[in-house]
Design goal:
By secondary structure, the chain is mainly alpha-helical. The protein has 13 helices and 5 strands. Bound molecules: zinc ion. Zinc ion binds next to helix 9.
Length: 266
């Protein structure tokens, strides 16, 4: 594990300010961070490869490499957009690995590129409270965030309406049997008796919340970084930041991101 303490002085340089402050005011950071940042990226990629074995980890690695490429080439919005995607994807990898479900439906939805189809059907979790609230509802205070109980955070559907989502759903009778509870729900589309739960997929806010939940840690700092990236993209999007200095700003931010998120991932 990398000792992040030694990077404190770099973080201090950022002084808790937002990336947007630097971009709008064209405030440059001098120095040469290229060696240190490319070493840190290599370390991060090895840690990801060691920790996770799902094929979808490739997206996290790719996001990091793309961000680095964009930062080196002075593409401000794209560099930070890729950092945001990296944050989201790394958190999701960790959550999936904590769920301990066979053929994890979240993972399958990503792998098969059908995530958006579930979202199009509004099978969406907007916050971790929604996820936790549903588990609490079915299992009381002693709920488990692992195994098939996770499906109960999704949407109850009848046989007809759940047919399309067989791969992303679980039979209610199986959930009842494996987790020892009784479930009595109506289909959310037609009011018939529900026979399966189809998973609901977490939006970014929910992903960050769940990362905290599975690790029993506060993730508000990660939420702040996510918001900071979103602010770079919206409402302005384009900047006239001096190209050759973008790598410095981006590197300091990435060190800040690594030191914040890695404690919860590895
Ligand atoms: Zn139905």
């Amino acid at each position: 594990m990398i000792d992040y303490k030694k990077y404190d002085r770099y973080i201090k340089k950022f002084k808790n300010r937002s990336i947007l402050d630097y971009l709008i005011k064209n405030e440059i950071i001098t120095g040469n961070y290229d060696d240190i940042i490319s070493d840190l990226i290599d370390d991060e990629i090895s840690m990801i490869n060691d920790k996770f074995d799902m094929p979808i980890k490739k997206c996290a690695v790719k996001a990091l490499q793309s961000a680095y490429f964009c930062a080196k080439n002075g593409m401000a919005s794209a560099a930070f957009e890729n950092n945001r995607f990296f944050l989201e994807r790394l958190s999701l990898l960790k959550i999936i690995s904590c769920m301990d479900i066979e053929n994890n439906p979240y993972e399958l939805a990503l792998e098969r590129k059908e995530w958006h189809e579930l979202i199009n059907n509004r099978f969406t979790l907007y916050g971790s409270a929604q996820f936790v609230g549903k588990l609490n509802h079915y299992y009381g205070k002693n709920f488990d965030v692992k195994n098939v109980s996770v499906y109960t955070t999704g949407i109850p559907l009848c046989g007809i309406h759940s047919k399309k989502f067989a791969m992303y759903s679980m039979d209610i009778s199986k959930i009842e049997k494996e987790t020892n509870i009784k479930i009595n729900e109506k289909c959310s589309k037609c009011d018939k008796k529900a026979t399966r739960f189809v998973i609901a997929l977490p939006k970014a806010g929910a992903i960050i919340g769940l990362l905290g939940f599975y690790n029993n840690k506060d993730t508000r700092n990660i939420g702040k970084l996510y918001a900071d990236y979103s602010r770079v993209l919206h409402p302005y999007g384009f900047y006239s930041y001096p190209k050759e200095y973008l790598i410095n700003l981006w590197s300091l931010d990435l060190i800040r991101l690594f030191t914040t998120i890695n404690k919860l991932i590895f």
